[in-house]
Design brief:
The protein is an alpha+beta fold. About 15% of the residues lie in helices and about 25% in strands. The protein has 1 helix and 5 strands, in the order βββββα. The strands form 2 sheets. Strands 3-4-5 form a 3-stranded antiparallel sheet, with helices on one face. A two-stranded antiparallel sheet has the order 1-2.
Length: about 90
């Protein structure tokens, strides 16, 4: 990987997105889910969300790791600058 190139995050079924371009993950529920449809992934520069076959939790963990952050729920005592703890 070239220096400075943002890592790619897999969405499943051969789809990948740049980690720094994802701005929202929406889990699919009910009749919308099925046949490999688990999560809508909103990507900067695309009008429509991509449909991922991976769960929002799995994608979120990969995004956090790719961006050098601790995954949600596993802060390991690290605080993010400018954010107060909620609990």
């Amino acid at each position: 990987m070239a220096r400075g190139t943002p890592p790619l995050v897999p969405l499943g079924y051969g789809k990948f997105v740049r980690a720094d371009r994802v701005y929202a993950l929406v889990p699919l529920e009910g009749d919308d889910r099925g046949d490999g449809r688990r999560t809508f992934v909103y990507v900067e520069g695309l009008e429509q969300p991509l449909v991922a076959s991976r769960s929002e939790g799995a994608i979120a963990r990969d995004l956090a790791e790719a961006l050098g952050q601790s995954p949600r729920g596993r802060h390991d005592g690290v605080a993010f600058p400018g954010q107060e703890p909620l609990f």
